[in-house]
Amino acid sequence: MLEVKNLDVYHGWVQALRGVSFNVSKGEIVAIIGANGAGKSTLLGALAGLYRPQKGEILLKGKPVAGKPPEYMVRQGVSLAPERREIFNTLTVLDNLLLGAYHRYRAGKKEVIMDIEKTLELFPALKGREDHPAGTLSGGLQQMLAIGRGLMARPGLLLLDEPSTGLAPLVVREIMSTLANLKKTGVTIILVEQNTVAALKVAGRALVMERGQIVLSGSAKEIMGNPGVQQAYLGRTRMA
């Protein structure tokens, strides 16, 4: 579904991504882990059209899309739920969800309304709060809203940037369980996370990034068992 080849991205004079290459198949959940500043969010931004690569290719279903603007990528089925949620605090929950479907609202209002109901079924904690200002919600509910807004675009590829940030463990488990259920519907997910344990429990494969490069890839089980990953990201040290 997605193929990335030798991707370079700069922020000004600073190179944020260096020769990044990987692929994602339809229906997969692929986790991307790494420390702050590793380039994880930049990678998602490049896939979503927020950053223009200086070099390399992004192929979506075999079609080159590198450098295309965000609105184009949304219409191609790529949706980003950004870090820190970035919901519209003064708008209602319902209006935030509707904004996720802005590009198809006029042509298919009935389908949009149906999708709102599906999203509320996926996140039942949002039910009954449709008229509440989004800024009054708890952090966990705001994260559910951010993911729900992304799903309102009907994406084939959902990009999630640090969805567990600042959330209680119980809420994190609920959100990760929802992602596992989404996989069953055929949605492909790229999950950027610093909560390595949570990410590797839900993902089938994982990539480890350091200094703008992918330094390790494999199944989630392989990555979880890697001694270097255990020491760097899981707080474990090898026994002497």
Write the layout of secondary structure elements.
Elements: E1 2-11, E2 14-24, E3 29-33, H1 40-48, E4 55-60, E5 63-64, H2 70-75, E6 78-81, H3 93-99, H4 109-122, H5 139-151, E7 157-161, H6 169-184, E8 188-193, H7 196-202, E9 205-210, E10 213-219, H8 220-225, H9 227-233
Parallel strand pairs: 3-8, 3-9, 6-7, 7-8
Antiparallel strand pairs: 1-2, 1-4, 4-5, 9-10
Helix pairs in contact: 3-5
CATH architecture of the largest domain: 3-Layer(aba) Sandwich
Specify the number of helices.
9
Structural class: alpha/beta
Mean of the pLDDT scores?
92
Sheet with most strands: strand arrangement: 6-7-8-3-9-10
**Proportion of strand residues:** 25-35%
Rg over C-alpha atoms, rounded to the nearest angstrom: 18 Å
Q: List how many beta strands DSSP finds.
A: 10
The CATH topology of the largest domain corresponds to Rossmann fold
Low-confidence stretches: none
Overall 3D shape: globular
How far is the N terminus from the C terminus?
43 Å
CATH H-level superfamily title of the largest domain: P-loop containing nucleotide triphosphate hydrolases
- The helix content, as a percent range, equals 25-40%
Query: How many discrete domains?
Result: 2
The CATH top-level class label of the largest domain: Alpha Beta
Order of helices and strands: EEEHEEHEHHHEHEHEEHH
Biggest sheet overview: 6 strands, mixed
